[in-house]
Amino acid sequence: MALNIISTIRIPENNDWVIFILLGCGFLYLFMIISLQRDATIREFLLQPFEDSSNQILSWMIVSLVYCISLSVLVSQYIPFVPQIVAEKEILGYQLNKIGYTMLSVFLFYFGRMILSYLFYQSIADSRKWPLFYFAATKFYFVVSLILMALIIVHYYFGINKAEVFPYYILGLCCIFAFKNLFYLFHPQKVFPSEWYYKILYICTLQFVPLLALWKLLFF
User: Fold this and answer.
1) pLDDT of res. 14
2) FRET partner for 159 with CA separation of 20 to 30 A, picked from 13, 29, 122, 135?
3) Which conformational region is residue 159 in: left (phi greater than 0), alpha (psi within -120 to 50 degrees), or beta?
C-alpha cells in the first residue's frame, strides 16, 4: 500500500522561470514600442514604411533577441539530450542543460546567418538593400515571436500532450518558412536582389540549408 501511495505522488513542475522570461521579453517589446518607436501602436509599427521608421538597428536587435529566446524556450522541451561533449563543458562553473544548449545553438545559428546574409548582399554589390532586408525581417519576426510566446504559455501551463502536438509544430514551422520567403519575395520594398538566380541562391544557401543544419544539431 505504501508503494502504491508513493507511486501516485506527482511532483508539480516548477515553471516560474518561463514567466520571468516572458515578462522580460514583454518589457523589451514595451521599451521598443514606447521609446524606440515613439509610442506607436503595434499596427502602426507593422505598417510603418521604411522612410518613416526610426531606430531600425536597435529594433531589429531587440526583435531578434526576443525571437531567439522564445524559440529556444519552446523547442528545448523536445531536445532528446545534450551532446556529451557539450554537457561536459562548464561556462562560469555551470553546465548547459537542454534550454541552455538550445539557446546557445539558436543564437549562434542566427548570428552566423546574419553575418552571411550581410556578406551576401555585399558580394553581389547590392548593399543598399541590406537595410531594407533587416527592416522587413524585423516586422516578420516580431509577429512570429508573439505567436511563439502564446504557444509557450499553452505548452507550459495547459498540460498539452507534447508528443501529439509535435507534428503540428513541424507543420507550422514549414508554413512559417514558406510564408517568410514569400513575404520577402513580394515585399513592397523589394528586399531581395532583382535577379531571380540571386533570390534562389539566397533561399537555398542561407535559408533552407542552415535550417537543416540547426535541426541536425539539435535533434541528432
Assistant:
1) 66
2) 29
3) left
